[in-house]
Input
Amino acid sequence: MDLVLGMKDTHPREVRKKRDIEMKLRHLFSSWGFEEVETPSLEYFATLQKVIGEELKERLLQFINREGKLVCLRPDFTTSIARKYSSDLIGEHQTIRVFYDGKIFRLPSSPLRTESELTQMGLENIGKNTAAVDAEVIALAIIALQEAGIRDYAVDIGHVGFFRGILDMMDYSADRQQQLKVIMKTKDFIALGSFLEQFPPAEPQLASLLLDFPFLRGKKDFLIGCQDRFPKTQLFTVPFQRLQSIWNILVDFGLEANIMANLGLIRDFDYYSGVIFEGFSPLSGSPLLAGGRYDELFRIFGKDRPACGFALFVERLVEVYEKSHPGNSVPPLIYTIHYQPTYRKPVFLLAQKLRESHLSVITQEESELPVALKVTDGIHEYSWTNIDWDILPEQIQKVIYHG
Amino acid sequence: MDKLTLSIPTGRLKDETIALLSRMPSWPDSFNLNSRKLIFEDLSLPWKIILSHPKDSSTYVEFGAADIGIVGKDILQERGNEVYELLDLRIGKCQMVIAGPESLTTTELFSKDTFRIATKYPNITRRYLQEKGLTADILFLYGSIELAPAINLTDAVIDLVSTGKTLRENKLKVLENIFPVSARLVANRISIKTKMESILAFVQQLKGVIGNE
Output
């Protein structure tokens, strides 16, 4: 039978790796006081339409439900969580810390890519707009990568204010702004060059900044030095100050080694409003995590609540982990107890006892068995002709662990 | 600095690309890529070089098998690869055009109830028709596109044209230019961060040797 286009099965070996990472992250997020939340797989198109960009709209899996309304499989969790907490009256003045783990659905970005279903695990901190919250969220993103066993990684930290500020100062019509946004998102710096030649901004400084966007990246001294390249206006001083505060907090947390300031960072989602960040590894061609502050999302849903969060792409974490730990996946041992039918009752109790002590046990009745009872793990084999049921569980554990 | 993996297309673009790269200061004097090997990893080389099929170069870069690569704008438009486009190398220049029999005009073609276009670029063709608000059947062919109208297979073609000689020999003419094409330097979106200094140095060196025309 055929698979639905864009869907794929996951082999138990991969699922094991994935669950292992998910378990570690669940534990991590809980230990920082985040609670797991679930949102439905389907949302009305009308809900999503308000907040997602044109490109992503084209990538929604959508259909008409029984009410005759257009519904979509969720393309991310953040929108659903914002929808939930902007209509939820409970805890209006509290900070909400939630995390999620589940599938998201997006049609491939190009006809040559196939995957349409991805696992995202992430968290949201709703309630405050401070550098401390931003820094804590980024710190958790970094620690999450470490917990997932990713060794070689970096987290780039930027701010939507840089590109928005430049766009503001350029004084273009709405159409032209849109044109420029598309060019920046497609990362076509040749098209950008000719666009800026055709429509030169009032301040030539802005054009050279934009053309340099892929390379505005460095450590703290770069972040400080780069301020001189930007016009002295609040549009830029506010983002610079915020990034510096975040940086200082992350230094205090001892997490400076793997962070980079990247002023040219642009995220695909239009709802981001402050700090944005992206984590990646040289072993993967795509980001491992992405996030940022999205105060405007709640405003669109009718409630003014600041929020910051990120999502990890779990399959990519697995891929990078596998690449950096080759041959490191040992399948779990499963023990089979072969027994003669007369022993059905005590063997059932025995198996239950072993399962309670976290062994995986299969039982198999065999009337032709030459011994009373036999335990195998696929390689080794242990048999008994005379059984003392009282000490058998210990005997089995002993031979399993010590041979 | 990290050593970059560079993907160079074989075929039409290869010689021009190498002529350009060999003018870069870091290109070793005695080095040539004329063996049948597809991967060059010599210690004397400042980069690891992969020779790729011209249509695959940007895919190697998109998926990170190469950090940077040279690729035609036609391929980037057709495949929509998620990569950074950094430089126009001003080589391999040609035009993406819609062409048809010498007797045909665009008005005639576009006013037909239905017509057929032969192409190696189905995505570009689909977008072009969408922008024009036209409906037509797209016939995907692997080569000798110019043949299609002559044997009454299609009404027109969408293809690359450099001198126009092939078109003339097959009694075709350009009906409309769609976009100009040239070779581009592209970079992987992760490598541009992890190997930023190397890529920046490469871009600056290459900028210095790109011609003005």
